[in-house]
Amino acid sequence: MTHPAQRHRFRLINRELQFGLAWRMMIAYLLFLFVGIALMFAPSMLRLATGSKIEELAPAAREFLVLHNRIWPAVLVTLAGVFLYTLFISHRIAGPIYRINATLKKMQEGEYPDKVSLRNGDFFLETAELLQDLSRKLAAEQGKEGRKT
Hints:
By secondary structure, the chain is mostly helical. It is built from 3 helices and no strands. Helix 1 packs antiparallel against helix 2 and helix 2 (54-108) packs parallel to helix 3.
């Protein structure tokens, strides 16, 4: 299998797939993140809710405010990072799917491409190699049938 020249310009190949995957990942990570944050804030919140003496409440309130000031900027950076990383990874999925689908459409039309090329680092390299082998086999069989008639 050949690999085309590495393209450095990032663009969305399948916008629906890539953004859909990124949003699903964001929602999943957001749920896990909020559970973790709730666990981090729980001891301070519990002390604030059950404490009655000012000596107990002051340290818990300070801890709660410190956590609040530190956590939310980290949450925003994490969510943005997860979203962008998911778009980057989905590019390695959407590109091969696009090329494999294009090859299958050509095969439906009776063309049998000799090569199915993917970029270095793309997923589904093995699938592309199988499709390439199938295309070559069908082209050879088509050639044999063409000679018989």
